[in-house]
Amino acid sequence: MPLVDQAIRHLTFELSRAKANKIAALKLIHGFGSSGTGGRIRTEVRKYLGAQKRKGAIRLFVPGESFSIFDADTRKMLDICPELRSDSDLDRHNNGITVLIL
Questions:
Q1: Which residues pair with 100 in a beta bridge?
Q2: Which H or E run contains 60?
Q3: Burial 24-49 (b: 16+ CB within 10 A, else e)
Q4: Residue-wise pLDDT tens digits, 62-81
Q5: Under a CB-based contact definition with an 8 Å cutoff, are residues 77 and 62 in contact?
Q6: Is this prediction's pTM over 0.85?
Q7: Which domain holds residue 24?
Q8: I need a surface site. Which of 21, 24, 40, 94 has the fewest CB within 10 A?
Q9: What CATH number is attached to the domain comprising 38?
Q10: Helix 40-55 and helix 4-20: axis angle, to 10°?
Q11: Which of these, 50, 84, 45, 49, lies nearest to 67 by C-alpha position?
């Protein structure tokens, strides 16, 4: 179990690696916290992704609980990366993941 700062460093590395390999979309599996009420890693990862989006480092991200065909940002993602339509977490409201477009 990594600490928050270790998780963010690992995420930063993996985002750079994915961009270098021209990967269009990623699904982050960060868990939802051992208490089931939202762990620190999930919260901090999403804050970090928000900052990365504001900087233009990533295009879009959607929390797993919103990853649904009824969500506007998810529909944008599906237009950009149609392969996400077959993702097993689509419409499952999984708050232990976050999906993003680079």
A1: 26, 61
A2: strand 60-63
A3: ebbebebbbeeeeeebebbebbbebb
A4: 999 999 999 999 999 999 99
A5: yes
A6: yes
A7: 4-101
A8: 21
A9: 3.30.1370
A10: 40
A11: 84
**Which pair of tokens denotes residue 36?**
């089931």
Condensed to tens digits (0 to 9), the pLDDT of residues 6-37 reads 999 999 999 999 999 999 999 999 988 766 55
Residue with tokens 């990967």: 23
3-state secondary structure at position 27 = strand
The per-residue pLDDT for 80 is: 97
Do strands 60-63 and 97-101 pair parallel, antiparallel, or not at all (unpaired)? antiparallel
Cα distance between the two ends of the chain: 26
Instruction: Render pLDDT for 85-96 as a digit per residue (tens, 0 to 9).
Output: 999 999 999 999
Sorted by sequence, the CB contacts under 8 Å of residue 88 that are 6+ apart come out as none
